[in-house]
Amino acid sequence: MALVPSLMFLNIRVSSPSITFLSVLSTLGTSCPHLQDVIVKIPSAADNLIHKISPFLAQPISQLNNLHSLAIWDLGNQGIEHIMQLQTLQSLTLDLRVASSVEPYLQFPGFHGSNLLCLIAYALDDISNFLSSLQVVRSKEINVRLMPSRPSNSGSTMLSQFFAVLQERCDSDILESFTFVDLSSKAPVQLDVFTPLHAYCNLTKLYISRDHDISISDEELSHLVKAWPKLEALTLSGYIFIDGITVPTFHGLFSLLRLCPALTTLSLVIDTTKLDGIDLQCPGGGICNKNLKDLVLGNSCIESPLNVALILSSIFPHLERVGLNCWGLAPIISPEELSAIEQWRLVNSFLYGFGVVRKRGVVE
Fold first, then answer.
1. Contact (Cβ atoms closer than 8 angstroms) between residue 210 and residue 238
2. Which of 299, 306, 340, 362 has its C-alpha lying 20 to 30 A from 157's C-alpha?
3. CB burial of residue 57 (10 Å; 0-12, 13-18, 19+)
4. So what's the pLDDT on residue 363?
5. Please, which residues have CB within 8 angstroms of residue 291's CB and are 6 or more apart in sequence?
6. Which residue has the higher pLDDT, 193 or 316?
């Protein structure tokens, strides 16, 4: 009754399919020819269903000639080939945590003209193996998400191997957005492990989030971003869990703004206490970004809310406030962190006041 010709969006969660249900599902391509968005999921503890369901999905999905977005698990070699036949597909989310078979991937042509390729896995080598099976990936946006389940070694060596595969398979002129979320590993890495992304000079969005802190110095930050003058959104760290880890200072932030003048969104933990060599009247030599309106500085250490607000107001004249939602990431808020939160609230109060004065001056 639900699978009618006018259906355009379908979200199915399959828990205990009967033969009758699977038979109906196999008619999807003919009973719902106008489908544009399809999401098919199974319970996380029901991997055994994959082998049972996949044969009933691969063929009908390949018949959906209007399909724009698909989120599904790894359907195996035959299923991947069917998906690549979809000429209208713009967004593909592929869950590699479960697969229809354990056979090695064949050599596939790849994805041409898609806007988004999102790959979800437990281990980084699973994603590397899949990308290695593609001749080319011409997606504007690539999302890689490593989920927590079993112990994983996604340290520097594994990351280097992954980026080598990515650089070989992904068209460097087309990629504009790259997201890397690693919730599977506690292995520390240095920031320079991400420098192979320099091959993608057209990046406008870069989001890196790991379950382990990344050490970032002023020089390393400048070296990382120098290849991306078009960058509009950058997330490198939202919350630092380890005391004593290296983070950039305002000097690194000034360099970032010079190298990436188009930034509108920034998330980065910095050390705001090191103000040596900074003229509060003209911080950063007068560097100014009028585009940035979304700033998250995580649990950046702070001593003088007024000085911090003066600097931020000068380099980001249209910034209304600093995002503080990141403080909810900590499992327990210590008295020191509560004090820091209050200081950042003071920063926002000052920014609001400076903004009011600036607007009045413009009006007058």
1. no
2. 299
3. buried
4. 43
5. 261, 262, 263, 264, 318
6. 316
- Burial of 212: CB neighbours in 10 Å, binned 0-12, 13-18, 19+: middle
Query: What number does CATH give the domain 9-363?
Result: 3.80.10
Take residue 238 and report the two structure tokens written for it.
């939202």
Least confident of 109-123, 161-175, 224-238, 264-278: 109-123
Structure tokens of 237?
Answer: 């760290």
Q: Which two tokens stand for residue 6?
A: 């006018």
Cβ atoms of 209 and 180 within 8 Å: the answer is yes
Are 260 and 227 contacting, i.e. CB atoms less than 8 angstroms apart? Answer: no
Whether 127 and 152 have beta carbons less than 8 Å apart is answered as no
3-state SS record for the chain: CCCCCCCCEEEEECCCCCHHHHHHHCCHHHHCCCCCEEEEECCCCCHHHHHHHHHHCHHHHHCCCCCCEEEEEECHHHHHHHHHCCCCCCEEEEEEEEECCCCCCCCEEEEECCCEEEEEECCHHHHHHHHHCEEEEECCEEEEEECCCCCCCCCHHHHHHHHHHHHHHECCCCCCEEEEEECCCCCCEEHHHHHHHHHCCCCCEEEEEECCCEECCHHHHHHHHCCCCCCCEEECCCCCCCCCCCCCEHHHHHHHHHHCCCCCEEECCCECCCCCCCCCCCHHHHCCCCCCCEEECCCCCCCCHHHHHHHHHHHCCCCCCEECHHHHHCCCCCHHHHHHHHHHHHHHHHHHHHHHHHHHHHHC
What is the band of 44 on the pLDDT scale with cuts at 50, 70, 90? low
- Is pTM beyond 0.70 here? yes
Q: Are strands 91-99 and 69-74 parallel, antiparallel or unpaired?
A: parallel
Q: How far apart are CA 116 and CA 363, in angstroms?
A: 44
Identify residue 95 by its one-letter amino acid code.
Answer: D
Sequence ranges of the domains in the chain: 9-363
Computed over every residue of the chain, the mean pLDDT equals: 87
Q: Which residues contact 92 (CB under 8 A, 6 or more apart)?
A: 69, 70, 71, 83, 111, 114, 116, 117, 118
